[in-house]
Amino acid sequence: FLGVMPAYSAADDALTTKLVTFYEHKKDSSVPSHQATVLLFDPRNGSLKAVLDGSVITAKRTAAVSAIATKLLMPAFAEVLCILGAGVQAYSHYDIFTELFTFKEVRIWNRTKEKAVKFANSVNGPVQVCSSAQEAVTGADVIVTVTMATTPILFGDWVKPGAHINAVGASRPDWRELDDELMKNSVLFVDSREAALTESGDVILSGAEIFAELGEVVKGTKPALPEKTTVFKSLGMAVEDTVAAKFVYDSWSAGN
Q: Known PANTHER family for this protein (predicted)?
């Protein structure tokens, strides 16, 4: 796939387009599945101001949004973090989650165990490598799914009541990471209703009802309900890249 994600933010005085290629590699490849570039324009006249590494921006802004959702939706006493997947997003989520939150235990599972072991050996803190997704998930308070799965790998009967799930993978209308039981028995939050109802297989195929957009919780127009089992379905929005790219550009400009 080649995706084009244009956005303009009046508040940030920023105009960008992200170009992202997405290739499903049949075999483990040294080339990432997602590669991206962000073009930053001058909103006054349309001239190109900068070309930015969209892969780094995508990894960091996606994890940052998951962290906002987690801060609002996770249970009051969250001790165990579980990450399903060991790719780029697993690293960016681990970095920000261990920086912002205090977990007593971090677990990881990946379809290819060698990648999970490599992940555990390369991050700064202790990580338990699990032999199955069920083992990783059982008793976890916060779960992050960042996989290339096309059928469910996380099942509702494994999930601790009151846990919070950030569902980041399965960005196509016919792909799943979460099963029907989990989707229907959780309070569902999304970044964009419009996107979720056209792009997310987890939402479309389960028929789960969307409770709120994350922005509504941030603004205080919808409650967070951290005492419930919650799912945040993250698809990403172009404006997140715009804000992040402007932030990077402004920081670079100040350094120059």
A: KETIMINE REDUCTASE MU-CRYSTALLIN
